[in-house]
Structure formats: structure tokens, C-alpha cells
Amino acid sequence: MDKILEYLKNGNQPDNRQEAQKLKLVCAKYTLIDGELYRRSYAKPLTKCLRAEEALKVMEAIHRGECGTHARGRSLVMRILRQGFFWPNIHKDAQVFVERCSQCQYYADMQRQPAGYLKPINSSWPFAIWGLDFLGPMPTAMKNYKWILVAVDYFTKWIEAKPLTQPIAQSVESFLWANIVCRYGIPMMIITDNGTPFANQRIRDFCGEHQINLKYASVWHPYTNGQAEAANKNILNILKKRLDGARTRWPEELPGAIWAYNTAPSEVTQESPFSLLFGMDDVIPVELEYLSPRVETTADFEPEALQTWVDENDGSRRVDLDLLE
């Protein structure tokens, strides 16, 4: 990046004509703002260019920090770019970093057969269909927690989860009310397996009261509740890599694991559940430390000036609406 900086700051370029022309083409993708180098991006207006030591720390934070999922190389690059950072050779550096991560190598999935065909269950809108399942038994932890009740939204793939001492209908009913209905409204359908905690009169009465269509996955076709099964697998993989042997600490790591999953872009859709739900990416700790473009831009706004801008913009939009025929 030094040559790019020198050219943009001082106009210095190689004596060789071909190399100079090549440098100009490369520099067209970059710009200087207050002495900082930024790269023009297709996904965002600008991404901040990092030096080697900064890039290593950003990879460390995003890969295995508070919001880390120990993502593979391509997913790691996607997350870095979405958070507003870039540097040359980012793909190669991310791949090498993941290959050197001991947790990723030790707990990596063993792919023994090719993936099967997708059998999608379509959801019309966010939180219309939820899949529920229990993950466990886990190693006995504080407060005798041994199970995780997991719910996944079929539209956004957003996950809600709660540690429990035992898988009973009362806990399921409480979870449905507090973690689903009170947060996201009444769903159209809930899909579960035929386990005793779900297939009982108490849960049927709760769903009947709230006019929720309760569906049970067939024993012969368990993929009907495949979203919940996939969510369980992802949560377990994240917990294994984050705990790295400290197995009884899983209830403490669970909120961070859920946050990491909900905010990580999918390799398939290239969107995270968070961005599908809120229309933006979440701000993560590393953005505050290295000042991503959106954090740096927002920090320059004074609250009074920002409110004035919002009020004026709202007023202009109302005037535009009045002018419509």
C-alpha cells in the first residue's frame, strides 16, 4: 500500500511507463481522507485500508473475539469487508490465518459425503414460522444447566436460545411466551419434533389459545425440522471452538455464541440474520478500536446537528409528498 499512498499524497510514480500506468489504474480504486487510505467498494461507499499489524488484529478479533464464530476463510473475508475494512491479499491472509487456528483444525467438521438437495419450507415474512428443538444433554454446568432450548426463524434464520435444567413442557411454554411472542409477536406456525416436551397437551393448549399452527416433524422425515437441527449443529460448533476444553462454561458463552451466529453472514445468502432483520450490520468491538468508516463518520456528528438534519430531512420529505398529484 506504500506505493498507493505515495502516489495519492505526492503524485510519486515509477519511472517505467507501464508500471506507472498500472499504478494509476490501481489507485483509481482508492482515495485519501484526512491522511487515511480508503478503498472504494461495491458493497459499501468506502472501506478502510489497514496495515499488516492492524489487519492481523482485526482478523483475530473477528475470527475468535467476542463476536467470532471461527468462520472459514471466505466467510471471514466477507465479515471483514462488511464491517468496513480491507487490505491487499485479504483472501490469502484470511485462509492462512484460519489454517493456523488450532481450535478450527481440532474441531473442524469431517465431510464424509456430499451435501444433499435442499428441501426448503418457505416462510412468508420474518417470524411467521419458528422451528424448535432441544440441544443436549450438555456437560452439567452452573445451576445444573444441561440442555439448550433453541428456536430458529425460518425467514431470517435468527436464533433464540435459553439454557435449561431439564426439557419439560413448562419450560417450553415459558420460552415461547417470553422469548418468542413477547419479542416478535404471534407466529403463524411452530415446527417441532415429537418429543415429550413438545408433544403434550400444555403446548397444544398454548398454541391453540394464540391460534398458532403447531406442526410435528415425522419420525420418518426429520428434515421437516431441518432448520432447528442445523441451528443446533452451528451453535454446538461455535461453543466447542470458543470453550476449547472448558466444557462446563457453556452457559456463560451461550449468549456470545448466539450473537456471533446471528451477526455472521451466510456463505449462501451473503447476509446475516441481523442484517435481514434490521437492514444493517451490527457494530462490533473491533470497529470501535480501529474506527470503521461508519463509526468514524457518526462520531463526527454532534447530537444537535444530527437531530436538525433529521428534522429538516423529514420536513423535506413531507413537502415532496404534498406535491404528488
From TrEMBL:
UniProt organism field: Apostasia shenzhenica
Example of a GO biological process term: DNA integration
Signal peptide per UniProt: none
SUPFAM superfamilies: Ribonuclease H-like
InterPro entries named in the record: Integrase_cat-core, Integrase_H2C2, RNaseH-like_sf, RNaseH_sf
Gene Ontology terms, MF aspect: nucleic acid binding
One Pfam family hit: Integrase_H2C2
PROSITE patterns: INTEGRASE
Name of the protein: Integrase catalytic domain-containing protein
Stretches assigned to the Integrase catalytic domain: 122-281
Domain of life: Eukaryota
